Amino acid sequence: MKQPDHAGGPVERLNLLSAIILSDWSTKLDHKIATIIINRYYKAFDCARASLRFLERGTKATRPNVIASLRRLVENGAFSVLREGAGTRPTEYKLHFDFQSSGIADDTSSSGIADDTSRNGSGIADNTPSGSAGDTSRGASGIAHDTKTLLKNPLTSGVTLKDKSTPAPAHGLAAAPVGADLKVRDFTIDYAELDKSEDDGSDFIYVSMVSDDGTELDDCIYTQSDNQKTQEEGQIRLAELCRAIGMDAPEDVSDFVGCKLKAIEVPGPNWSPPRYIPADEWGKRAMGIAA
């Protein structure tokens, strides 16, 4: 059933997490994983993205226990898998905001306890290095196409990169919460793909990056949209990303992979796009950052 247009707001997210916590079948690990996934929900694309490695670090749980927890959350209807992870691409989860907490009468002594993975752990961890939730029958139906290989489409159509003599806008930094610790880190882009929004058909670039200390960031940048404001904002963000890398508009999305850049993770209760630091000295000074 199609969810209402307002689904995915702060109230709906809180209600979903509350319903999961109040369910008889959920464990403390389920609560932690649900919190992380719900916080990474991106309303524009109606999904949350999280890799298995990210969930392991966030919960400090073992891989088999994380997989067992994901299975419970999916099998009991809180989430479903839209697209399983592959390589460094995280798994995409559909959040069911109409989920209702309930007591499950089934015996979960062998598979519902986070510490007991004797039935679910065998052979699972080695087969799901990308963060896939394992065997999820609901998830298979949500896979629209195979994107194991990068899509080769030109990215320069309609994109105007700013003159490098012009300082990058600092409005993104001002949007951070008051008192937030904005730490600049060195990142390497480890995955990039051109994808299409199922909501309105807009094209966007998805990139993920990792720092030397293991911090993971991801970003979704519109490259083509019928909405003029969305299109313009996407052009600005793509230009900022290219300037942070120190390159002109790429001919192919795969050109981003392996590129190094400086970025800031914006803390907050919900997902926020990273803020990119220009690679050139003038851009850094314009943003008040020491070269």
Automatic annotation (TrEMBL):
Feature: compositional bias, Polar residues: 119-139
Note down the stretches annotated as region Disordered: 105-142
Taxonomy, superkingdom: Bacteria
Q: What name is this protein filed under?
A: Uncharacterized protein
Q: Which organism is it from?
A: Rhizobium rhizogenes (strain K84 / ATCC BAA-868) (Agrobacterium radiobacter)
